[in-house]
Automatic annotation (TrEMBL):
Organism: Adineta steineri
Region (Disordered): 209-246
Record protein name field: Ras-related protein Rab-14
Xref: PROSITE patterns: RAB, RAS
Assigned protein family: Belongs to the small GTPase superfamily. Rab family.
GO biological process, alphabetically ordered: defense response to bacterium; endocytic recycling; Golgi to endosome transport; phagosome maturation; protein transport
């Protein structure tokens, strides 16, 4: 079954204050050596909660008063997939049309794209086709695209049904979940399942890691460039000098 690919929280395990292992075990705490870096982008209209999703995933915090992103914001976190530590580099892009020329430059080389709409604002859902066109035309053919219906905690104000979004995802071969950046519901799931799918693409040979467009950097390449595959991270996996200013 392809993943609209109906995800349940039973597939995941959560633990505060450590690296998440999607197979249910905690990874060893530091030093933070990892096998790969995966580049993610978060795309979608202004105000759908992209920055709040980034904060919830990287810092386990909900930012109630997130100002709109200007240009791009950046965050990192180390996770574990099938016994491999993976560093996620996550680029949160501005949703305003006037910044699209700038943010489109960040699509290239993305291994994963989280495409977000607000379940309480139909206009943000109606614009998904445009965002998907950009993602498909500016990233590589194997980029994993995950559709996220955010603000699930506001179900009483819903303007987009789960079923219609699921159909859109099925028709376009997308992963799909509804999330709440406020409560954290399914936020881990979206980011981690994207990584798991990317890793599967590596294992089955559908990604050429020698191509920059793959969005994946093996650790041995990083070590050759930096001398330390884990430099720049703090104990939470957040980049020491890069913190999302939602």
């Amino acid at each position: 079954m392809s993943l609209t690919k109906y995800l349940t929280t039973a597939d995941y395990y959560r633990h505060d204050g450590g690296i998440l292992n999607i197979n249910g075990a905690m990874a060893n705490q530091g030093p933070y050596n990892y096998s790969y870096i995966f580049k993610y982008i978060i795309i979608g209209d202004m105000g759908v909660g992209k920055s709040c999703l980034l904060h919830q995933f990287t810092e386990k915090k909900f930012m109630a008063d997130c100002p709109h992103t200007i240009g791009v914001e950046f965050g990192t976190r180390i996770i574990e997939v099938n016994g491999q530590k993976i560093k996620l580099q996550i680029w949160d892009t501005a949703g305003q049309e006037r910044f699209r020329a700038v943010t489109r430059s960040y699509y290239r080389g993305a291994a994963g794209a989280l495409m977000v709409y607000d379940i309480t604002r139909r206009a943000t859902y109606n614009h998904l086709s445009g965002w998907l066109t950009d993602a498909r035309s500016l990233t590589n053919p194997n980029t994993v695209i995950f559709l996220i219906g955010n603000k699930g905690d506001l179900d009483g104000q819903r303007e987009v049904t789960y079923d219609e979004a699921k159909r859109f995802a099925e028709e376009n071969d997308l992963f799909f979940l509804e999330t709440s950046a406020k409560t954290g519901d399914h936020v881990e799931d979206a980011f981690i399942e994207t990584a798991r799918s990317i890793y599967q693409n590596i294992q089955d040979g559908s990604l050429n890691l020698a191509e920059p467009e793959s969005g994946i950097s093996p650790a041995k390449q990083l070590s050759a460039r930096t001398g330390n595959g884990a430099s720049g991270t703090d104990g939470s996996g957040q980049s020491g000098d890069s913190k999302c200013q939602c």
